[in-house]
Amino acid sequence: MTHVGVSTLSLVLLVRGVTGFIGTLIIGTFLKRGLYQTLIAIPILMAVIPLTLIPFGGWIAAVATLLGLWGLMATAAPVGWWSWIAQAMPENAEAGGGLMVAAIQLAIALGSTVGGFLFDSSGYQSTFVASAAVLLLAAFLTFLTSRLQTPRAA
């Protein structure tokens, strides 16, 4: 959609990689402040990105910025989820890790299949909207989990 050349595309991907590295460096600070708040905020913020890419996808500065933000959050998110596994299943972290890997592989397979069908039938916009919907669902399910696992004052 942006019609960029190879050099510009490489630069955008470099930006995404550098921001991803930064994301893994700073995620610990946010996790210390609040595990569930961070695990809820990341997918909400990530849901905004594909929805914003739809109207601004032709503007390279916006695309580079949004993909940089995506890299920042998308590489930090797994650190948060692995932290949650270690906290939620301290006696069975290895089993939890195996389940997490299986869930990730299933998500990749389903996402590529459903995304491909959506792209073929309705264009890239439908895949972006669907990804935003899945991210918001993830945030909602994380919120519900936080309510079940966070002790409430009597």
Helix/strand layout:
Elements: H1 6-33, H2 35-56, H3 60-88, H4 93-122, H5 124-149
Helix pairs in contact: 1-2, 1-3, 2-3, 2-5, 3-4, 4-5
Overall, the morphology is globular
Residue fraction in strands: under 5%
How helix-rich are the residues, as a percent range? over 70%
How many separate structural domains?
1
Terminal Cα span: 55 Å
Work out the oligomeric state of the chains in this entry. Answer: single chain
* Number of E-state strands: 0
Number of helices: 5
Helices and strands, in N-to-C order?
Answer: HHHHH
Main sheet properties: none
* Low-confidence regions: none
Mean pLDDT: 93
Name the structural class: mainly alpha
Rg, Å, rounded: 17 Å
Structural write-up:
The protein is mainly α and 154 residues long. It has one domain (6-149). It is 88% helix and 0% strand. The chain is built from 5 helices and no strands. It has helices at 6-33, 35-56, 60-88, 93-122, 124-149. Helix 4 packs antiparallel against helix 5. The longest helix has 30 residues, at 93-122. The radius of gyration is 17 Å and the shape is globular.
